[in-house]
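Appendix B, Record 12. Input sequence as logged:
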Amino acid sequence: MAADSTPAFASVSGDPSTEAKVIERLTKALTDANLPGLDFFEFQKALKNAQKTLPGADEATRYSVAFGTLAAVGDVTPDAIASTADHYIKALDEKQASFTQYIEGQVKERVDAKRKDADEIKAKIQAKNEQIKALSDEIVQLTQASVEAKNAAAQAKAELEAYAQSFCDIKERFVQEIQQAKQKFVTYIMSGNTGR
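Logged structural output:
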């Protein structure tokens, strides 16, 4: 599941640059979590290679070839491959947890600050209104600033929520891909059903 073998997904957020960032982060998380030796990570890379080199082969054959490639390189068992898939799902879960903390920090920094700005501006408006009616020009300007701050807060929140949703959706696709590959691996390799 290296960056060069990351599957192309249908757009979730509608923003290709956002999705590219999420895919890059999740792929890096998987790469960083790569265990020493041959495991599910290397199996996925071997499987992607088999898909490229054997485009006409059925899925069971590609799985067998990918496993055979790893078995030829080193000491690896089907159990070792299948059991390490959960390690990579856990790595994605941990990345999501840290990403959620990041989003919460951004909400506090960007959204809450804008809301606070809007509240402070509104308080100034009320104070000026009570003091002197002649300050109506300033009140109009502050009102406009309050609206702009609220709009900026709403826009920042919407962008962060969209980014967070995109992250969750793409992470879920990564998890599904790993789970499906694991299930097929168990079916094709561990149960001896190679499709022949």
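The chain has five helices and no strands.
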